[in-house]
Design brief:
The protein is of the alpha/beta class. Helices cover 30% and strands 33% of the residues. The strands form three sheets. Strands 7-6-8-9-10 form a five-stranded parallel beta sheet, sandwiched between helices. Strands 1-2-3 form a three-stranded antiparallel beta sheet, with no helix packed on it. The chain has a two-stranded antiparallel sheet with strand order 4-5. Helix 2 (83-93) runs parallel beside helix 3 (115-124). Residues 1-10, 13-19, 23-29 and 31-43 have low confidence and may be disordered.
Length: 181
């Protein structure tokens, strides 16, 4: 019972005209005459459309934890487990920012992918070549950071990631320093 309304648990969510629509079947009062309630939530924030971030990592736990933190901060998040998925997602979703791991399994679908090869592919795509890339890696090799920045990465993070610092850097890169964590 919430505010005199009993939510029956019948929910349906869908997008309509750039808004998220939540349809909830509720009952009012003891005799429970049915009322249908629709809630419209804009996919735009006060500062404009919601920013989209593509997270690319072969570790599903990293994908989930980073995604949850970013979604909690108001970003729309897409994920990819390997280079081929990353290139396809970048083409389809046109993200505003990409978080990219460097280390991947040695061979995916006959192609030896790593984060540098993925970055090369992004630079070849007209729709993705100007998307800022932030590197996230478990490697401690200083040459990796040097190569990443010379390849165009705008920032570099070692795992484990400090999510609060990552969010500050993302907001800075996306030009939204006013959002709080």
């Amino acid at each position: 019972m919430v505010g005199g309304l009993e939510v029956k648990g019948h929910k349906m969510c869908f997008a309509w005209q750039g808004r998220l629509v939540i349809f909830t079947d509720i009952a009012v009062g003891e005799n429970a005459s049915r009322v249908s309630m629709m809630t419209f939530m804009s996919t735009e924030s006060a500062s404009g459309p919601v920013k989209k971030i593509l997270v690319v990592d072969d570790n599903e736990i990293i994908l989930k934890t980073v995604s949850l933190k970013l979604q909690g901060a108001g970003y729309e998040v897409f994920t990819a487990l390997d280079g081929a998925e990353a290139v396809a997602a970048a083409r389809k979703e046109n993200p505003d920012l990409i978080l990219l791991d460097i280390g991947f399994p040695p061979d995916v679908a006959g192609v030896p992918w790593d984060g540098f090869r993925v970055m090369e592919w992004f630079h070849r795509l007209d729709s993705a070549k100007k998307i800022p890339v932030i590197i996230i890696t478990g490697s401690e090799d200083p040459k990796i950071k040097e190569r990443a920045t010379s390849s165009g990465a705008v920032a570099f993070f070692h795992k484990p990631i400090d999510h609060d610092v990552l969010l500050k850097v993302i907001r800075s890169v996306l030009g939204d320093p006013t959002k709080s964590a």
